Amino acid sequence: MDPRRKRKLRLFVALSAAVLLAGALVYTSFSASTQAKEPSDLLAAAEPGRSYELTGKVVDDSVDRDGERLTFRIRDRDGRESLPVTYSGVVPDPFREGREVIVSGELKQGTFVAERDSLITKCPSKFTKDEQSA
Amino acid sequence: MEYGLAVVVLLALVAVVVLRPLVLGVGDEGGDSATREELEAAKEAKYREIRDAQLDLEMGKLSKEDHRAVDRELRAEAIEILKRIDEIDAPAERSSEA
Amino acid sequence: MAGLGSACLLVGLLTALYAAGASVYGARAGSRAAVASGRRAIYCVAGLMVTATVVLQSAFLRSDFSFQLVAEGSSTDTPTFYKFTAMWATQDGSLLLWALLMSLFSSAVLFATRRSLRDIAPWATAVLALVAGFFLLLMVAWENPFTTLASPPAEGAGLNPLLRHPAMMIHPPMLYTGYVGFSIPFAFAIGALIVRQTGADWIRATRRFALIAWTFLAAGIMLGALWSYAELGWGGYWAWDPVENASLMPWLVGTAFIHSIMVQEKRGMLKVWNVSLIVATFVLALLGTFLVRSGILDSIHAFGASTIGKQFLTFIAIAILGSTALIVSRLDDLRSRAKLDSLMSREAFFLVNNLVLVGLCVVIFWGTFFPLISEALSGEEASVGPPWFNRVTTPLALVLVALAAIGPMVPWRRASRSGLMRSFRLPISVMAVTLVALVAFTDSADSPPALVMFCFVALVLTVVAQELARGTAARRTIAGDPWPRALGQLIARNRRRYGGYLVHAGIAVLFLGVAASSAFDQQTDVRLSPGESFEAGGYDITYVRPTAEVGRDTSGTGAPIVFGAVLRARRGDAVQTLHPSRNFYPSQNAEAGPIGRFFEGEATSEVDVRWGLRRDLWTAVRPDIAELEPAIREADAKFADAGDDVQAIVIAAIVERYREQAPPASFRAIDSPLVSWIWIGGAIMILGALIAIWPSPEARMRRVTSIYAAKLGKELSSA
Questions:
Q1: Nearest-CA distance from C212 to chain B in Å?
Q2: C138-175 b/e (C-beta count within 10 Å ≥ 16 → b)
Q3: Which subunits count as partners of chain A given 3+ CB pairs below 8 Å?
C-alpha cells in the first residue's frame, strides 16, 4: 500500500475510533447521571422509585439529630416550598441551617429518604472545596 | 487625594522608564546579533541531539548502522548552522581586518 | 496606603495597554525603540504589582481593618503565617496574585529574549500585556482589593477555619504559578503564528517556562489532594470535584504539550498539534481560574453568582476564537515536510500520547460540565459522580502508564525489531513475574484494573532502572568511573532525559498508590460509646475515652474548643494510639448566645492518620454534642451579661461535661493500602522535573561543543 493511502487509512481508523469513543462517553454519562431537582420540582412531579439529587437550602430550625439519624427540611433556593428529609451517614463539616446542600435519594410518601453518605454541603466561602462525602 | 497624587507620581515614573528608548534611541549590535543568538540556541540543540544519539549507541539502543545514518544527518545539519553563524561573523572579521 | 495600592492598579492597567500598543506599533513599523519601550512597560507593570502586593500584605500583617479584605479575611489573633497567605483566600487578592505572577514571569522571559526572537517577541509582549491587562481591568473596575471601609471594625472576621492548613495556603500560589507559566509559551506561540515563524525557536525560548509551569501545577494539584486526605473528614484524596478537575485539565494538556514539542524540535512535525495544545492549555488555565471563582457549577442557576463571571467568559471566548482563527489562517506555514514513517517510532508514540492525554481531558471536561450540557441538551439538569469518572478515566490512565514505559524505549523514525526485543526483554519478563506473583500471593486479582496497573507500573520501573543501569555501564566503559560517580555523571550530563525518566517513575509509583488504595481500601463507619470496639480492615480498634479541651488547640489553628477521642488500634502485635478530634470555632452569628456561639460555629475534623509504607490507618471522629444543648441554652440564659472570665469558666464546665457524660460518637476508619506511595510518587515526579529543568553549567557545554566543533571543522574542510 503506498504511503498516502496508508496515511488516509490510519486517519479513517483514528476518526472512527474517536467517534465511537465519543458516543460511548455520551451514552454512559447520560445513563449514569442523576438529575438535580429542587423541592418544588419534586412536589410538582416526582416519579416514585426514581432516584434524584435534591438540592436546596436547609430550613432554619428544622434540623433534628437523633443518634445516627438526621432529619431536616430542604427548601427551594429562592422559594418557600420545602420537603422533609431523613438521612443517615456522614454529615459534612459545613452542614448548617441556611446552607445549600445536595442529597441523593427517593421521594417516599412525602418524605425524601436519602441514600447513606450522600449529603454534600456547599461551603459558603467562594474559595473552598465543597465535596465532603465519598 | 492620596490616590490622585499616587497616580500622577506613578505615571511619571513609568513614563521616565518607558520613554527612554524612544528619546535616546536603541543603540545595539543590530539584528544580526539577534539571529546569531537564535542560531547559537539551535546549534546547542543540535549538539545535544548528536550526544543523545551517541549515548543511545553506547547503551545499545541504536545499532551501529542506524547510528551512523542518524549521526551523519545530524552533523550535516549542524554544519549548516555553523555555516550560517560564520556568515554573520565573517563581515565583522573582514571589517576589523580592514 | 490603600490609595497607593489602587493607584498602582490603575497605572498598571494603563501601562499594560501602552505596552501592548507600543509593541504592536514597533512590530509593524519596524521600530526597535518602540519595541524596547513596550518591553520596559512590562517591567514597570511588574514593579507596580510588587508595590501593590507589598501594600496589601503590610495591611494584613498590621491588621489594618480599614482594608475591607483584611477585615473580612483576617483578625488580630490569626497566626502570622495565615495573615500572610490570607491575601489569596479572597477573590480580589487572588486576582492581584495572578497579575503579580503574570507580570514577573513576563518580565523574566522578555529580559531573557531581549536580543533574540526580534520578530516574535513584540507580538508576544502584546499578548502578555493584554492578559495582565485583563486581570488589572477586573480589579480596577469590579473587584478592587484595596477597597476601604468607611468605619473599620475593631476586629476582623478571621480566616475560614477550613483553610487553616499550610498545604491549603501554598496551593493557590502554586496553581497560579502553573497557570501563569503556561501563558508564556502561549504568548510566544501566538507571536510565532502572527509572523509566520513556525520553527522551533519559540519553543526553545519558552521551554523552561513550560516545564516550570508544569512542575508547579503538578505540585499544586498534589497539595490539594494531600489536603483533602489529611484535613477533610471524608478520607479521600480526589473527589472529581469541579474545582479539582479545573486544575487537572490544564495539567493534562500541558503534559501533552511538553512531550509533543520534543517532536517539533527533533523533526519539525506536530506543529499544528503544538500550537493547538498550548492554546488549549492557556484557555483551560483561564477556565480553571474562573471555575473556582464563579460558582457556575456549584449553584448552576446563579450564572453570574460572581461579579466577574461574564467578563471571564468573554475573555476566554476571545482567546479561543482569536487563536483558532489565527491557527487556521496559518495552516500552510504549519505543515511539516517530514511525515510519519512508521507506527513503531517515537513520533508515533508521542502522537498517541497526545491523543490519550487530550482524551482524558475531554472526558473530564464532559463530566465536569455535564450539568450545563445536559440542561442544554435535554432541559433537565443532571450530574455524574465519581463512579462514572473513575469508570471512564481508568482505561485511559492504564494506557498512559503503559506509554510511559514503552515510549522511551522506541527510537526516532523507525524501530528495529531486534532493537525492541533487546530493550523489552527484561521489562516484559519482570512484568510477567510480577503478574504471576501478585495473582499467586495477593488478592490483587480481585480488581482486574488494579492488577493491570500494577503490572504496568512494574514495566515502567524496570524500564527506568534498565535505562539507568545501561547508561551507567556505558559511562563506565568510556570514563572508567566507579558506579556511583558514573551514575551521577550520567544524570548530570543528560538532565533532560534522565529527569524525564525519573518523572515517569514517579508517575508510575503514584498510580501504584492510587490503584491499590482505591481498589483495596476498607472503610468502616460506626457509632460507639467508650469501651466499645470495631473492626476496620485488618485493624481492631477500641474507643478508649473521649477528650475535651478548652483553649489548647494542638493543631495550631486557634480553635478554642476541641472535642475528640482516644482510639487504640491493634493489628497483629502492633498497637497504636490515635487521637482524632474536632475543632469548634466560635460563630460570627450575632443571634447566637454568648456561650452557645462557641458551639455553633464552624467545626472542622482533625483526622489522625498513621502513615505507613504498606498501609495507612485513617481515623476521624464526629462527637455528638447534642446532649450538651440543654446546658448550653441554660448557660446562655443565665450568663448572658456575665463578664468574659465568668463565661470562660462556664464554657470550660460544659466542655468538661462532655468528657464525663461521654455520649456515643461517630467514627470513620479507613485501612488504605499503599496510599503513601501517592505522595512519594508525587515527590519523585517533582524531583525528576527539577533535574530536567536545571540548566547545565555553561562551561561543560562549551568544552563539549568545542570538541565537536573541531570534529565538524575537520569534516567541513574535507567536504
A1: 19
A2: bbbeebbbbebeeeeeeebebbbbbbbbebbbebbbbb
A3: C
